[in-house]
Amino acid sequence: MATTVSYKDQILTTITNNTKTLKTAGTWLEDDIKITDESSTTAVAVEDIPDEHGGIEKRITAIDISDTNATASDVAQGKVFYSNTGTRTVGTMVGAEWTTEGIATGTEPSGNIAFGNSVTTVKKYAFYEKPITGVSGQSVISIGDNAFYGSSITEVRKTDFPSLTSLDGSVFANSKQLQKVCIPVLSAIGSYVFDGCENLDVVVVPKAHTTGRYLCRNCYKLKAFDMRGDHTATTRINDHTFLNDSLFDTFIYGGNRLPLLDLSAFDGTPFASNGTGGKLYVRQDMVETFQNATNWSTLIAYPNNQILPIEGSYYETHYADGSEVTA
Protein backbone atom coordinates (compact mmCIF):
# COMPACT_ATOMS: atom_id res chain seq x y z
CA MET A 1 0.00 0.00 0.00
CA ALA A 2 1.38 3.39 -0.93
CA THR A 3 0.66 6.97 -1.83
CA THR A 4 2.03 8.25 -5.11
CA VAL A 5 2.40 11.91 -6.09
CA SER A 6 2.75 12.70 -9.78
CA TYR A 7 3.27 15.88 -11.78
CA LYS A 8 2.00 15.76 -15.36
CA ASP A 9 2.03 11.94 -15.13
CA GLN A 10 5.65 11.88 -13.97
CA ILE A 11 5.99 10.22 -10.56
CA LEU A 12 7.65 12.55 -8.05
CA THR A 13 7.59 10.28 -5.03
CA THR A 14 5.99 7.19 -3.60
CA ILE A 15 5.38 7.14 0.13
CA THR A 16 4.82 3.89 1.95
CA ASN A 17 5.68 4.24 5.61
CA ASN A 18 6.19 7.82 6.72
CA THR A 19 4.99 11.38 6.55
CA LYS A 20 6.34 13.83 4.02
CA THR A 21 5.53 17.41 3.19
CA LEU A 22 6.24 18.43 -0.37
CA LYS A 23 6.55 22.14 -1.06
CA THR A 24 5.98 23.69 -4.49
CA ALA A 25 6.20 27.37 -3.54
CA GLY A 26 3.09 27.96 -5.63
CA THR A 27 4.81 27.07 -8.90
CA TRP A 28 2.56 24.24 -10.16
CA LEU A 29 -1.08 24.30 -11.19
CA GLU A 30 -3.47 22.28 -9.09
CA ASP A 31 -4.72 20.32 -12.09
CA ASP A 32 -1.18 19.14 -12.91
CA ILE A 33 -0.76 17.26 -9.62
CA LYS A 34 -2.19 13.76 -9.25
CA ILE A 35 -2.29 11.89 -5.94
CA THR A 36 -2.98 8.16 -5.86
CA ASP A 37 -3.87 7.54 -2.24
CA GLU A 38 -4.10 3.88 -1.20
CA SER A 39 -3.30 3.83 2.48
CA SER A 40 -2.59 7.31 3.83
CA THR A 41 -4.37 10.52 4.66
CA THR A 42 -3.59 13.42 2.37
CA ALA A 43 -3.93 17.17 2.78
CA VAL A 44 -3.36 19.57 -0.08
CA ALA A 45 -2.80 23.29 0.47
CA VAL A 46 -3.87 25.45 -2.45
CA GLU A 47 -3.28 29.17 -2.91
CA ASP A 48 -4.81 31.69 -5.32
CA ILE A 49 -1.94 33.12 -7.39
CA PRO A 50 -2.50 36.08 -9.75
CA ASP A 51 -1.49 35.21 -13.29
CA GLU A 52 0.16 37.47 -15.83
CA HIS A 53 -3.19 38.36 -17.38
CA GLY A 54 -4.75 39.63 -14.18
CA GLY A 55 -6.65 36.43 -13.49
CA ILE A 56 -6.35 33.92 -10.65
CA GLU A 57 -4.81 30.45 -10.83
CA LYS A 58 -5.12 27.68 -8.25
CA ARG A 59 -1.60 26.56 -7.40
CA ILE A 60 -0.48 23.90 -4.96
CA THR A 61 1.73 25.14 -2.12
CA ALA A 62 2.03 21.97 -0.06
CA ILE A 63 1.05 18.31 -0.02
CA ASP A 64 1.08 16.35 3.20
CA ILE A 65 0.88 12.56 3.08
CA SER A 66 0.69 10.78 6.43
CA ASP A 67 0.94 7.19 7.52
CA THR A 68 1.06 5.97 11.12
CA ASN A 69 3.65 3.30 10.34
CA ALA A 70 6.65 5.65 10.42
CA THR A 71 9.50 4.67 12.73
CA ALA A 72 11.84 6.68 14.91
CA SER A 73 14.73 5.52 12.73
CA ASP A 74 13.60 8.18 10.26
CA VAL A 75 15.39 10.66 12.50
CA ALA A 76 18.73 9.26 11.41
CA GLN A 77 17.73 9.77 7.79
CA GLY A 78 17.34 13.50 8.28
CA LYS A 79 13.64 13.80 8.95
CA VAL A 80 12.00 15.76 11.75
CA PHE A 81 10.71 13.62 14.59
CA TYR A 82 8.02 14.65 17.07
CA SER A 83 8.93 12.56 20.08
CA ASN A 84 5.66 12.84 21.99
CA THR A 85 3.46 11.85 19.06
CA GLY A 86 4.69 8.31 18.75
CA THR A 87 6.18 7.51 15.40
CA ARG A 88 4.96 10.41 13.30
CA THR A 89 7.63 12.19 11.31
CA VAL A 90 7.81 15.11 8.96
CA GLY A 91 10.18 14.53 6.09
CA THR A 92 12.07 16.95 3.89
CA MET A 93 11.55 15.56 0.41
CA VAL A 94 14.21 16.47 -2.13
CA GLY A 95 13.03 16.79 -5.73
CA ALA A 96 13.62 18.74 -8.91
CA GLU A 97 11.36 21.63 -7.98
CA TRP A 98 10.46 20.90 -4.38
CA THR A 99 12.13 22.83 -1.59
CA THR A 100 13.95 20.87 1.09
CA GLU A 101 12.08 22.54 3.94
CA GLY A 102 8.56 22.20 5.21
CA ILE A 103 6.20 21.42 8.00
CA ALA A 104 3.37 18.99 7.42
CA THR A 105 0.02 20.61 6.79
CA GLY A 106 -2.59 19.55 9.30
CA THR A 107 -0.27 18.29 12.04
CA GLU A 108 -0.09 19.78 15.51
CA PRO A 109 3.53 19.36 16.63
CA SER A 110 4.24 19.49 20.34
CA GLY A 111 6.74 18.28 22.92
CA ASN A 112 10.41 17.79 22.10
CA ILE A 113 11.68 18.09 18.55
CA ALA A 114 14.98 16.70 17.25
CA PHE A 115 15.97 17.65 13.72
CA GLY A 116 17.78 15.02 11.70
CA ASN A 117 21.28 15.60 10.40
CA SER A 118 20.17 16.64 6.93
CA VAL A 119 18.13 19.56 8.27
CA THR A 120 20.21 22.75 8.17
CA THR A 121 17.46 25.39 8.13
CA VAL A 122 14.28 25.78 10.14
CA LYS A 123 11.85 27.84 8.08
CA LYS A 124 10.12 30.95 9.37
CA TYR A 125 6.91 30.46 11.34
CA ALA A 126 7.59 26.69 11.29
CA PHE A 127 6.36 26.11 14.85
CA TYR A 128 4.65 29.44 15.52
CA GLU A 129 2.70 29.25 18.79
CA LYS A 130 3.03 25.46 18.93
CA PRO A 131 3.47 23.86 22.38
CA ILE A 132 7.08 22.86 21.76
CA THR A 133 8.90 22.14 25.04
CA GLY A 134 12.38 21.35 23.69
CA VAL A 135 14.28 21.53 20.42
CA SER A 136 17.67 20.49 19.05
CA GLY A 137 19.45 20.05 15.74
CA GLN A 138 23.08 19.08 15.32
CA SER A 139 23.29 20.38 11.74
CA VAL A 140 20.94 23.36 11.93
CA ILE A 141 22.79 26.55 10.97
CA SER A 142 19.91 29.03 10.70
CA ILE A 143 16.42 29.51 12.11
CA GLY A 144 13.87 31.77 10.40
CA ASP A 145 11.61 34.51 11.71
CA ASN A 146 9.15 33.54 14.45
CA ALA A 147 10.00 29.84 14.09
CA PHE A 148 9.40 29.13 17.80
CA TYR A 149 7.37 32.21 18.71
CA GLY A 150 5.19 31.56 21.74
CA SER A 151 6.70 28.13 22.41
CA SER A 152 6.93 26.34 25.78
CA ILE A 153 10.67 25.72 25.45
CA THR A 154 12.38 26.01 28.84
CA GLU A 155 16.04 26.07 27.81
CA VAL A 156 18.38 25.90 24.87
CA ARG A 157 21.52 24.02 25.91
CA LYS A 158 24.98 24.42 24.40
CA THR A 159 24.72 20.89 22.97
CA ASP A 160 21.32 21.50 21.33
CA PHE A 161 22.55 23.64 18.43
CA PRO A 162 26.33 23.25 18.11
CA SER A 163 26.31 24.49 14.48
CA LEU A 164 23.75 27.29 14.72
CA THR A 165 25.15 30.62 13.47
CA SER A 166 22.08 32.69 12.62
CA LEU A 167 18.78 33.56 14.32
CA ASP A 168 16.32 35.72 12.40
CA GLY A 169 13.79 38.01 14.06
CA SER A 170 11.52 36.95 16.94
CA VAL A 171 12.62 33.30 16.82
CA PHE A 172 11.87 32.65 20.50
CA ALA A 173 9.79 35.75 21.23
CA ASN A 174 7.00 35.42 23.78
CA SER A 175 8.26 32.02 24.89
CA LYS A 176 7.33 32.65 28.48
CA GLN A 177 8.78 29.41 29.88
CA LEU A 178 12.25 30.00 28.42
CA GLN A 179 14.80 30.42 31.20
CA LYS A 180 18.30 29.76 29.88
CA VAL A 181 20.00 29.99 26.49
CA CYS A 182 23.48 28.95 25.40
CA ILE A 183 24.31 28.84 21.67
CA PRO A 184 28.09 28.48 21.33
CA VAL A 185 28.77 29.55 17.72
CA LEU A 186 25.85 31.92 17.10
CA SER A 187 27.15 35.02 15.33
CA ALA A 188 24.13 36.83 13.87
CA ILE A 189 21.09 37.62 16.03
CA GLY A 190 18.03 39.36 14.62
CA SER A 191 15.69 41.77 16.35
CA TYR A 192 13.12 40.77 19.01
CA VAL A 193 14.55 37.22 19.26
CA PHE A 194 13.84 36.93 23.00
CA ASP A 195 11.27 39.74 23.25
CA GLY A 196 8.73 39.01 25.98
CA CYS A 197 10.54 35.96 27.39
CA GLU A 198 9.66 37.11 30.86
CA ASN A 199 11.31 34.20 32.70
CA LEU A 200 14.59 34.30 30.78
CA ASP A 201 17.45 34.40 33.29
CA VAL A 202 20.71 34.19 31.32
CA VAL A 203 21.86 34.27 27.68
CA VAL A 204 25.32 33.04 26.64
CA VAL A 205 26.22 33.70 23.00
CA PRO A 206 30.02 34.07 22.96
CA LYS A 207 30.44 34.44 19.20
CA ALA A 208 27.61 36.95 18.65
CA HIS A 209 28.86 40.15 17.04
CA THR A 210 25.62 42.15 17.15
CA THR A 211 22.55 42.30 19.36
CA GLY A 212 19.35 42.84 17.41
CA ARG A 213 17.01 45.71 18.19
CA TYR A 214 14.72 44.97 21.15
CA LEU A 215 16.52 41.64 21.45
CA CYS A 216 15.63 41.00 25.08
CA ARG A 217 12.89 43.56 25.68
CA ASN A 218 10.61 42.80 28.63
CA CYS A 219 12.75 39.93 29.90
CA TYR A 220 11.97 40.88 33.47
CA LYS A 221 14.12 38.19 35.09
CA LEU A 222 17.17 38.50 32.85
CA LYS A 223 20.26 38.97 35.00
CA ALA A 224 23.24 38.24 32.76
CA PHE A 225 24.14 38.42 29.07
CA ASP A 226 27.48 36.99 27.92
CA MET A 227 29.04 37.60 24.48
CA ARG A 228 32.65 37.18 25.43
CA GLY A 229 34.27 35.76 22.30
CA ASP A 230 36.80 37.49 20.08
CA HIS A 231 35.19 39.18 17.08
CA THR A 232 36.68 39.78 13.67
CA ALA A 233 33.74 41.84 12.38
CA THR A 234 32.43 45.19 13.58
CA THR A 235 30.23 44.63 16.59
CA ARG A 236 27.21 46.60 17.72
CA ILE A 237 24.87 46.77 20.71
CA ASN A 238 21.70 48.03 19.06
CA ASP A 239 18.92 50.23 20.38
CA HIS A 240 16.63 48.97 23.14
CA THR A 241 18.39 45.61 23.31
CA PHE A 242 17.58 45.18 27.01
CA LEU A 243 14.62 47.54 27.34
CA ASN A 244 12.72 47.17 30.63
CA ASP A 245 14.90 44.32 31.91
CA SER A 246 14.73 45.54 35.49
CA LEU A 247 17.04 42.90 36.99
CA PHE A 248 19.68 42.95 34.25
CA ASP A 249 22.91 44.07 35.91
CA THR A 250 25.67 41.91 34.37
CA PHE A 251 26.95 42.35 30.83
CA ILE A 252 29.99 40.33 29.81
CA TYR A 253 31.84 41.33 26.65
CA GLY A 254 35.14 39.56 26.08
CA GLY A 255 35.73 40.72 22.52
CA ASN A 256 38.94 42.26 21.26
CA ARG A 257 37.05 44.93 19.30
CA LEU A 258 35.16 47.85 20.78
CA PRO A 259 31.46 47.44 19.94
CA LEU A 260 29.38 50.38 18.81
CA LEU A 261 26.74 51.24 21.40
CA ASP A 262 23.31 52.81 21.23
CA LEU A 263 22.73 54.09 24.76
CA SER A 264 19.05 53.20 24.59
CA ALA A 265 20.15 49.55 24.66
CA PHE A 266 20.17 49.73 28.45
CA ASP A 267 17.01 51.80 29.00
CA GLY A 268 14.91 50.48 31.85
CA THR A 269 17.76 48.44 33.33
CA PRO A 270 19.99 49.02 36.38
CA PHE A 271 22.62 50.34 33.92
CA ALA A 272 20.41 53.31 32.94
CA SER A 273 21.11 56.86 34.17
CA ASN A 274 18.42 56.49 36.83
CA GLY A 275 19.18 52.84 37.60
CA THR A 276 20.71 51.17 40.63
CA GLY A 277 23.91 50.26 38.79
CA GLY A 278 25.27 47.42 36.72
CA LYS A 279 28.60 45.74 36.08
CA LEU A 280 30.27 45.63 32.69
CA TYR A 281 32.95 42.93 32.40
CA VAL A 282 35.53 43.29 29.60
CA ARG A 283 39.03 42.10 28.90
CA GLN A 284 41.71 43.71 31.04
CA ASP A 285 43.42 45.17 27.98
CA MET A 286 40.12 46.72 26.83
CA VAL A 287 39.10 48.51 30.05
CA GLU A 288 40.70 51.82 29.18
CA THR A 289 39.37 51.66 25.62
CA PHE A 290 35.82 51.35 26.90
CA GLN A 291 36.34 54.14 29.44
CA ASN A 292 37.35 56.57 26.67
CA ALA A 293 34.88 55.50 23.98
CA THR A 294 31.84 57.45 22.81
CA ASN A 295 28.64 56.31 24.59
CA TRP A 296 30.47 53.64 26.58
CA SER A 297 32.16 56.34 28.66
CA THR A 298 28.74 57.90 29.25
CA LEU A 299 27.24 54.59 30.33
CA ILE A 300 30.13 53.84 32.66
CA ALA A 301 29.83 57.29 34.22
CA TYR A 302 26.21 56.77 35.26
CA PRO A 303 25.83 56.43 39.05
CA ASN A 304 26.80 53.05 40.50
CA ASN A 305 27.87 51.50 37.17
CA GLN A 306 31.21 49.71 37.14
CA ILE A 307 33.58 48.44 34.49
CA LEU A 308 35.64 45.47 35.61
CA PRO A 309 38.15 43.06 34.03
CA ILE A 310 36.92 39.55 33.35
CA GLU A 311 40.29 38.19 34.38
CA GLY A 312 40.29 37.30 38.06
CA SER A 313 36.53 37.78 38.38
CA TYR A 314 33.80 35.25 39.06
CA TYR A 315 32.97 35.32 35.37
CA GLU A 316 36.43 34.36 34.19
CA THR A 317 35.27 30.76 34.40
CA HIS A 318 31.53 31.05 35.09
CA TYR A 319 29.57 30.86 31.84
CA ALA A 320 32.88 30.52 29.98
CA ASP A 321 31.91 27.25 28.33
CA GLY A 322 28.18 27.50 28.90
CA SER A 323 28.01 24.51 31.22
CA GLU A 324 26.55 26.48 34.14
CA VAL A 325 23.73 27.74 31.96
CA THR A 326 22.01 24.36 32.04
CA ALA A 327 23.43 22.91 35.23
Mean pLDDT comes to: 78
| Count of discrete alpha- or pi-helical segments spanning 4 or more residues | 2
Termini separation (Å)? 48 Å
Instruction: Give the domain tally.
Output: 2
Shape: elongated
By secondary-structure content and strand pairing, the structural class works out as: mainly beta
CATH topology of the largest domain: Leucine-rich repeat, LRR (right-handed beta-alpha superhelix)
- Name of the top-level CATH class of the largest domain: Alpha Beta
| Overall helicity | under 10%
Description:
- The protein has helices at residues 287-291, 296-301, and strands spanning 3-7, 10-15, 20-29, 33-37, 41-50, 56-66, 80-82, 89-92, 111-115, 121-122, 132-137, 142-143, 155-156, 166-167, 180-182, 188-189, 202-204, 210-211, 224-226, 236-237, 250-253, 260-261, 279-282, 306-309.
- With 327 residues, the chain is mainly beta.
- The chain has two domains: 1-106, no CATH class; 110-327, Ribonuclease Inhibitor (Leucine-rich repeat, LRR (right-handed beta-alpha superhelix)), CATH 3.80.10.10.
- The chain has a seven-stranded mixed β-sheet with strand order 5-6-3-8-7-9-11, with no helix packed on it.
- The chain is elongated.
- The model is unreliable at 67-107 (pLDDT under 50).
